[in-house]
Amino acid sequence: MLEKLSAIEEKYTLLCRKMTEPEVYSDPAEYARVAREQKELEPVAETFRRYKRALDDMESARALLADPELRELAKEELETAHGEAQALEEELKLLLLPRDPNDGRSVIMEIRGGVGGEEGMLFAHDLYRMYSMYAERRGFKIEVVNVSETEMGGIKEISFMVEGRDAWSRLKFESGVHRVQRIPETESQGRIHTSAATVAVLPEAQEVEFELNPADLQIDTFRSSGAGGQHINKTESAIRITHLPTGTVVECQDERSQYKNKDRAMKILRSKLYEAEQQRQHSERAAQRRSQVGSGDRSERIRTYNFPQNRLTDHRLEGESKNFNLQSVINGDMDELIDALTTAERAEQLRSGTE
């Protein structure tokens, strides 16, 4: 591990020096590339430097143990430095874990009302609101691509883009079935109903990563529509793209510009096909990837929102750490929940690496 850390520190130092070279900072594209790589290595390099300082402090404290007058002080310093070195060593193990290649990407999310009829669709709306409020907290930008609403304010299905650095790393655990237990507003006898909605999260694919053959695409235009006659567009600006080889269909009707709708629909189609290709390539590792944070399969129930008890339970976590304050999370305060899932994923990676 020390050899790998030394190599990373050396490369980080080289990149820092390179950013000051005229041929680099005078070239915006090259400067951005070097700066991005330097920023990725910075947490590991800086933590390793702190770790080496802690080791040096331990050696200095040990040297003072032979002095009777300084022995007690040296013992305290040695204990402090030893504790810091141990903590930094664990932090470095986590930092050296393989990084999800999609972590820095924006994402495309889809929510669909599931079992429970109208109540399931109202819950789908609540989930969209939750993600919107969380995105605002994190400084992410949300753009709705396509939405089908109900007369009562529910959502049959909605597709939207969440743009921002590390959007995938924060939202990738949301794929799956979300179950809700609560008393619907339409329930006259106060009975608790159980409904569900499904969430899919796709990393946004770049054009260079997945090229689309125009001959494989069927592109149709139609007029936008909405619940109760809302958002109706009198021109045929809405776009439907069908990928003929796979039968994958994407619609976009949020923009009034046909060009913008087509551009967004192509982005989503590319991301869907990219995800399918990734899953195909990694299917042989599926068992290894099924950790306590789940496989991300949309058929998997990942979470229960119990409104009467104001408790949110994530079924991929263990013990008391799986329960959270529902009102906080549903109002966009999701960081504690997402941090717990991230920690669980890293712990599983560490266990897998030592087996």
Task: Describe the structure concisely.
This protein is an alpha+beta fold. The protein contains ten helices and eleven strands.
Number of helices: 10
Main sheet: strands, sense, barrel? 8 strands, mixed
The main sheet orders its strands as: 2-3-1-5-4-9-10-11
Structural class by secondary-structure content: alpha+beta
Kindly estimate the percentage of residues that lie in beta strands according to DSSP.
15-25%
Question: How would you sum up the global shape?
Answer: flat
> Roughly how many Å is the radius of gyration?
25 Å
- The total of beta strands comes to 11
How far do the termini sit from each other? Answer: 17 Å
Q: Look at the structure and give the mean pLDDT.
A: 83
- Overall helicity: 40-55%
Secondary-structure element sequence? HHHHEHEEHEEEEEHHEEEHH
